[in-house]
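Here we describe the complex-level prediction in full. Unlike the single-chain runs in Section 2.1, the three entities below were treated as one system.
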Amino acid sequence: MKIVQINKENWTDGLKKLSEIYRLFGPVKEDDFHNFKELEQGQLPDLNCLNTRLSPKSIIYPQSEVMFEYTLDENQKDHHILKEVKKDYSPQAVIGIRPCDAKAFALVRLNFDTPEHQDPYWLKAYEATTLVGLACESPCSSCFCTTAGCGPYHEEELDLLLIDSGDQYWAKIITDKGKVFLKAAGWTQTVDEKTALKEIKAKKQAAEDKICSTVNTDKLREIETNELYNAPFWEEVSFSCINCGTCTYVCPTCWCFDIQDENLGSSGCRMRNWDSCMYPLFTAHGSGHNPRDTKLHRVRQRFMHKLKYYVDKYDTGIQCVGCGRCVRLCPVNIDIRRVCELMNSHAVMTD
Amino acid sequence: MGIEPDRLQFSWVSSAEATKFVQVATEVTLAIKDLGPNKNLVKTMPKVA
Amino acid sequence: MLSYIDKIKEISIRLLKECRVEMVIGFRKGTVPMMNEPHFAKSPEDVENFVWDSNCGINLCNYFTNRGEKIGILAKGCDSRNIVTHIIENKIKRDQLVIIGVPCKGMIDKRKISAMFEGEIGEVIENENNITVKGDGFEKNLNKKDVLQQNCAICIHRNPVIHDELVGELVEEQIDVDRYEDVREIEALPPQEKATYFEKLLEPCIRCYACRNACPLCYCPTCFTDESRPQWVGKGQDPTDVSTFHFLRAYHCAGRCTDCGACERSCPVGINMRVFTKKLEKDCLELFEWEAGLDPDVRPPLDTYRPGDPDEFIK
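The structure predicted for the assembly as a whole is:
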């Protein structure tokens, strides 16, 4: 495993070379906050942000995506046929993604890449993407990644991990994709591995020590589902929820979508859009019945899914990476850390 | 909302006022033709990914 | 304003003990700086969790819709006008509520304050007239008046217009306030520039509907955006659909919006969508001399036909 040194001074030259092969994405400041955007020629990613407001999941999984198109106009020779829309799956690279957001792709992949079904759009975009991570030196007070299965220097899903060390970045090569990326940029100067690794280990520890927010998830698997489902605290937890979709849309591990057709005269398309389990219509059946027609049902469903059902089904931990976005952005301050404690300690009570 | 004022017009016309109806329809059509096709808030195939 | 909390707790406990209400809706302390969470108390012990400070911006009127029990509710000036609107629209009966009126000097703008500092804010301590913002390597005192939410800075109804209890003395109403300066600026733009302005304003929108759901007026069982037969507005991110959603929502609030600011406050991407509702508020004032939610016995202008209604725009 090699560690390559990238001087911040000739960062731009490397990026220029990369932009000829990859479509580059990075955090860009817009108004008061940062978001991942496609970088224009010569535009630098702003790696000084704590984290972006919206997660980078939209790079692999866009919010609105046209899948098929069709025309009913019998004068066209391909009328009444659903045609796949051409998409751009050329190589792309996300520079400056935080380890929590990268790990989220691993969690989401369990849904989009199963033995029975593979989501072609998600998978193709995912395979075309190189993830160049940026280790966190100063995590936010609402980050709880260390107890959510990752951490500020976590390497899962990353092809490269950039560690800021003053006037240079150390790029830790994790996969072959990462190697290819570095070569394309012309960043080949390595550093002494032993010393570098030692220092990285110390920095990693320092960053992890800064995390002051934790959740306990040890009891979630063993408690009986119905005990949690019928727990008395849901009324108090769900009271303030306004059932907007903010938490689901900013969450890097949420994956639900809605497919619908849009028609315009005699042509149309089939598109998929992000959907949210917080919306009343999410579980509305064609018969008119809605199994989750109250706020309590929906709020309970969200937390049960993230902290119980996912744990039971996949046995890889909770469906949360501790990025803290839902905590910071919920308009009524519903806090998943608090709910996790309530659920985990409910287990203790009924033992 | 960014739509030109002459593009949207209101008028009271009774079914007994045929002449007025023709007049209003012609005037409004000419006014809109002068403005050209509307480019604002026009829904076409979704401009998304 | 900070001293209200004792009175709030006293009144809430009394109402619950006397069984005049089955629950009291207020706020409890949030888990991140400058946030409070709407909370209900069903017993005097629960009331201990209540807080009141300048972060109580969410409109509590959202929470009594479709509830059958008797409810005690904390209401600032803007919230009380929403209650009046709900009564006018038959959404709640007057005798179902015990309104605990809270004269308000304004809520602070969390987004504005966060933008003033480079690093993360760790704690915000509040005094009567100013706040101390502490963070990673910085500490600063700010005058509350300078960081009020936009709608609070130009508020002309700070006292509750309807109440059963009052938690403090009425505050002075602001007069000589120009509420529509920003609206007039936009009105003066030529159509194409207006269109561009709105396009840019709405570009970050992620259709999360936080604005719609935080708004106490948006209580339709099926919102027009969710209608599918026929589908009025697309659900995707097409800019025309996003604009249509915001414009139409504002129109549905015409003559009813009290400028409580809950929509702007709840938006996760910081869109100032109040420009739409304020424009319509201005129009209602100029065309019908109407201000929303002041009198529960007067029907609103979009509900009634008066012979003198303006019609110069009809040829």
